[in-house]
Design brief:
The chain is of the alpha/beta class. Helices cover 39% and strands 11% of the residues. It comes from Umbelopsis ramanniana AG.
Length: 565
């Protein structure tokens, strides 16, 4: 790692004016929340109520002493928490603080108080649903919903079994028990490897979108060719992948030293060969020659024959395979995978955010999923200068209001009568812009002007803003007030990028900047043609009319841009 690796951390909103504003706002919301809670209890309970506080979370249950509508049973989730014997009306705490992550992994700051503002104006059924969900996500082991209704196909168990067999074969290779192996098919292993810290002339591994494209497509290859899959980030770039994600189904941890020792210094044996595949920054045409050298009947198993394949890549080729192969689309469809769900289903199979991030994600997702909510995600990438030199950030709402115009057009076109509230979930790399956009919520005239609607609210996470490879950025931007980040700040920054991306995938529509980050969320949403790509500010007159369904950008088009797909 370069010793002169310096960068500015970004404390989100935690500076000067913003902090003051937040404190004042938080106090108002606190008192408002108290009023809401009082209002709820007086609405439902005429008799005396017995308020109980659950021990390991902050949700209050008021148990009525007579039968009422509020007394109807609550559906239990699939988590291993227990519902109270008597079901009562659920009320949320006055601030949505998350518990400290039990396993020592990252604990995010509290979900934004705007969530409580929004919940104060949804129908009571939705409030109750959210409140129950809040309790579940705060429990010791909140459920991770994956493929509950087969929406991700039927391939998971056989791949899990294959991976397990390959790991057993690896043990045999390590102990040189070749006799056992001779009876079986020859094991193959493939690893997505991110080593390099970026330096001049070497783009390193790229940002989150680059890395996810490389990692997911490498797994796609493993799945198509019966290879065991591993994923690896160097501990300094910016930290080990094992810290960022849990492994819900297969153990993709890569023991690099052991593997390289085993496969690169082999005794003369056909089992132990390795090769490096480099797909970094390849364009579509190059990918065509690298993945489909024999054209539409290419067998992916014939591509990289070594027993260990080490891949350096920031490129996707899943949708590409659907388009360029005559063989695989059929195989994939039988597995339950389509161009629309493949990227998301593979991502969620491999990578489960750690518990704190998951709780934070669910705190927003549960809101976005309510019947009474209409949601549009807005992702505005303003450029790296805002991240590394926040003190120079002078962006205003006006410079990017065309993103809001697109969101307003979507609301006008698709909002239904049951959508009582409209949420514009905003992600941006400029904390100045984020503050300015949030301030629209508090000024009715501005809200009407920019959000087009008094039911619309800008929602953000308030999490720190971070670029994955800041010293890459330092090549072309002078960092005027350098700050060396602590390990905690790095972990918080990258978790924020993951959380916000997963949430952008959860909104009904997306309005994105053209680069990889927004595209990643579009693919992860598993819904084609619900994403609108906005031009840069100097070409904003080219912005589409988002009320026109044909203006949405398709997965096929997205897969030909940036990190491909
Ligand atoms: C690719 O070739 C292997 C043998 O090398 C074979 O087992 C496999 O079925 C082939 N895959 C496809 C999709 O034809
Ligand atoms: C960075 O600052 C140095 C010295 O102030 C200047 O010479 C250089 O051109 C600047 N580089 C960029 C990319 O602005």
């Amino acid at each position: 790692m370069a010793p002169d690796y310096q960068r500015l951390g970004r404390g989100g909103d935690f500076t000067g004016m913003a902090l003051k504003y937040q404190c004042a706002k938080a106090l108002t919301v606190l008192s408002m929340a108290a009023i809401v809670i009082l209002a709820f209890s007086s609405m439902f309970y005429t008799g005396h109520t017995d308020i109980q506080y659950a021990e390991d979370n902050d949700v209050a249950y008021s148990v009525p002493d007579h039968k009422s509508d509020a007394d109807k049973p609550v559906e239990a989730g699939t988590g291993d928490y227990e519902m109270p014997a008597t079901q009562g009306k659920c009320t949320l705490p006055s601030s949505l603080a998350l518990p400290k992550s039990e396993d020592g992994s990252y604990t995010p700051t509290s979900p934004h108080y705007t969530i409580l503002d929004i919940l104060s104006a949804v129908p009571e059924d939705d409030y109750d649903q959210y409140c129950q969900g809040w309790r579940v996500l705060n429990s010791a082991n909140p459920p991770y919903k994956y493929n509950l209704n087969g929406e991700c196909g039927n391939w998971q168990n056989s791949y899990i079994a294959l991976h397990k067999k390959r790991l057993e074969q690896l043990e045999a290779l390590q102990t040189h028990s070749y006799d056992m192996l001779r009876e079986q098919d020859k094991p193959q292993y493939i690893v997505y490897k991110c080593i390099q810290v970026a330096t001049n002339g070497n783009r390193g591994c790229g940002g989150l979108a680059d890395r996810m494209s490389g990692m997911i497509s490498t797994f796609f290859h493993a799945l198509m060719t019966d290879k065991a899959y591993f994923a690896y980030w160097d501990g300094e770039n910016p930290f080990s992948l094992d810290i960022l994600f849990e492994k819900p189904h297969i153990n993709w941890h890569y023991d690099m030293d052991t593997m390289e020792e085993l496969f690169t210094n082999p005794p003369d044996d056909a089992y132990l060969t390795n090769e490096h595949v480099d797909l970094l920054n390849a364009k579509w045409a190059t990918m065509e020659t690298k993945i489909f050298p024999e054209g539409r009947t290419q067998n992916l198993s014939d591509l990289w024959p070594s027993s260990l394949v080490e891949v350096r890549s920031n490129r996707g080729y899943i949708i590409h395979t659907f388009e360029s192969s005559d063989i695989y689309p059929d195989i994939l469809h039988k597995m339950g995978l389509t161009p629309e769900n493949a990227f998301g289903c593979l991502t969620d199979f491999l990578f489960k955010p750690t518990i704190g991030s998951r709780r934070f994600i669910d705190a927003y997702k549960n809101l976005l999923e309510l019947d009474s909510i209409f949601s549009v995600g807005i992702q505005i990438r303003t450029g790296d200068n805002q991240i590394v030199n926040p003190q120079d950030d002078e962006l205003t709402v006006d410079s990017y209001s065309y993103f809001l115009t697109c969101a307003n057009q979507l609301t006008e076109a698709y909002r239904k009568p049951h959508h009582k509230r409209v949420i514009y979930f905003l992600i941006t790399d400029s904390s100045k812009l984020r503050d300015e956009m949030m301030a629209l919520n508090d000024d009715p005239a501005m809200q009407l002007k920019y959000l087009g609607n008094e039911d619309a609210t800008i929602l953000t996470t308030g999490l720190p803003i971070e670029h994955l490879e800041p010293n890459q950025v330092a090549k072309y931007i002078n960092i005027t007030e350098p700050h060396i980040e602590t390990e905690e700040e790095k972990v918080a920054g990258i978790n924020s990028a993951v959380i916000e991306n997963w949430l952008l995938a959860s909104t009904t529509y997306r309005v994105i900047s053209p680069q990889g980050y927004g595209k990643l969320a579009a693919f992860h949403s598993n819904v084609d043609r619900a994403t609108y790509s906005m031009p840069r500010p100097d070409r904003k007159d080219k912005a589409p009319n988002c009320g026109n369904p044909h203006a949405a950008i398709s997965f096929a088009d997205l897969s030909r841009l940036w990190s491909l797909g």
